Predict the 3D structure of the following.
Amino acid sequence: MAQEPTVSMRGMRKSFAGLMAVNGATLKVAAGEVHSLLGQNGAGKTTLMNILAGIYRADAGEIQVDGRRVNIGSPRDARSAGIGMVHQHFRLIPSFTVAENLALAKSGLLISRRAMQRAAERLLERYGFGVPPAAKVADLSVGQAQKVEIAKALLGGAEVLILDEPTAVLTPGETEELFSLFRAMCRQGLTIIFITHKLSEVLGFSDRITVMRRGRTVETLSSRRAGQETLAELMFGRAWDAWQSARSRKTPGPRGERVLWLDKVALQADGFSCGLQSVSLEAFAGEITGIAGVSGNGQDALAELLIGLHRPAEGRLTLAGRAMPQPSPGEFIRRGVAYVPGDRLGQGLCPGLGACDNVALKRHSQPPFARLGLMSRQRARQKTERIIAKYGIKIAGLEAPVSLLSGGNLQRLIIGRELDAEVRLLVAVNPSRGLDIQGMALMRSELMKLRAAGVGIVLISEDLEELQAVSDRLHVMFRGRLSPPFFRGDQDAQHIGRLMAGAGFGEA
Amino acid sequence: MDALWGLLPNILAAGVAAGTPVLLAALGEIITERSGVLNIGLEGIMIMGCVSAVMVTLDLHSPLAGLAAAMAVGGIMGLLHAAFTITLKGNQIVSGLALVLLGSGLSTMLGKGVLGQPVFDLFYPEALPWLADLPYVGGIFFKHDPLTYGGILLAPLVWFFLQHTRPGLLVRAAGESPETADSLGAPVALVRYGAVIAGGALAGAGGAFLPLVQTPSWVEGMTSGSGWIALAVVIFARWDPGKALLGAWLYGAVQALGFRLQAVGVPIPSQFLNMLPYLAPIAVLVITASRSRGQAIAPRALGLPYERESR
């Protein structure tokens, strides 16, 4: 690959509201190669590629295409520079046929169905897409729809094709097919950049790999010379050393009874989640059990299982020594399960209701909120005011819709509500996401306080630093499966990074 | 009953004509809704079409000028709806209801001067040479006024427009997935404006039919719910112009049947017969709704204002 790079990005920077998403990234992609951009969530891969595709405007940096400096300010600019992007969420019209979707990208007044169909057929055949042009997009498989997206980008004149996590939605068979399609496209002179966080794909299917971490490009290496160990280290840094050596720096809480026990639990996969496969998990009072993993690997399903929203298809769920065969959030709450969801305004709070109503919602039928079956507004208000004072929540009024609150205040309100009763098990999903430093510190100190008070905590998070800071034991989740636990001070902790990237789970 | 059989061609012929105002409004609404905008103000637009057609025809003695005026007024009311719902992103139901109220109030006020005045310059039925002599169908389909012919021709034209022209494709794309259309550089707002204005103009034409063909004068509230029926026909037709033609004819035929039954003195209270044209669409709607459960047939982005996501 000695030739002039087709795409060269240098010194790229981009921040959102003061948060550096890309902070000094350099990328050189050679013509006709499959180049993968590897990194964990939030490493800045998608942001960097969105800059190249003209969706974001970079704060600083220089982009060259075919050796010429270009100024990309809009998707149109990118298109005319020969750059096309296939996003994770397809931009296709489900009720239209494949041919109609492709025809949308062209011009002219009348459209002949037959000509449209033929043009689509030619394009689809050229690369061996194997998608029938007369089929409705809604009837296609995800893999086929993705090919139509690729065809659309090619139709727009793309010579450099960017794919954002193209394999996230594909079955293993479809993934194989996609990669052989990549090969065919490269033989015809196209250049492909694909974003991924999966180590196995990177090594098998790309020519070169650029690893990103925390907004920076760390290194570019040839896939022949790279190994999984090297890549995992580049991806996750040597962060695990800290956890490894942090043995006994924290005074362990009074390790007590087993508050939660999942024994080989399985959940059916559906369209939105990969389900759970034979997940075994224990959580003890006075301990924080961390669940690491890239999002979309079954974390949501696990959290919902733990709060009683799902019935396990197989296996047993035991809560404080009592088997819970029936899914019933109310029953779980009465047994002392508290939940801090990742989706604050979706599962956590009703956006349109005020703080008072939201606080009352969880225990509206129990004293002190209810007496003789009637809700006492006054008591709910008193309770809410106490929570607001305790956590320093900035709020316009008890009745103002909570959707007006900032992320930090929302989280404080949820925590206040959830911890306002006797808690034995807390399930928290990405509790610090989107919070400022103050909010994160509060979250962390609340977790440590609860741990000291003998509450069992399951912390599902994508934030490795947070997991390292507080977890006593740690599991890694990948495609609905859970690794065996690692313990603070374990010498095996170096494997965590590899596990997060899916290496070491084997194929099920 | 035999007398009724003999009347059947007559009833069907009358039904084809009587369905025209509903057909025109429904075809317009199909274009509007396929672009993703719901305009429930058809009743208001049609009544304004009636009164403006009467006023202009009385003045200029040309039904064609009256029709043009009705379409222009309908187009302007469509523009109002478009401005409120597309540019200002207002609620489409509220804006549509406002059009109904505006139309009924404004038409009453404007029509004061022409109330009850007979209109002499009308669209008259003209038998089409050769076709009108065909047995049976000739009498049903080919002895009508120009507006009825226009409506019948328009149904396949709207279908062709939506399925075989690029603007039609853009209209459908705007109604199914405006974000996709936008990402491909299609002017979603412009497409929707065009569709809503065209829909308004056609509803205005539907209104013009009533005084210029059916009842040659201005009567307050003379649309008597045709606009609402047209909305029902659009749903019954599943946004398909061809099926809208059938729906409008069904409505027209049931209406004509009611009149004839009254005329031959069938012992059914006239109130019931007058209810028939409104009951028929309800029955059809219930049947189609129960058959199409779970199927997405309405344009996916119908009723949703499109805002480019703020990044």
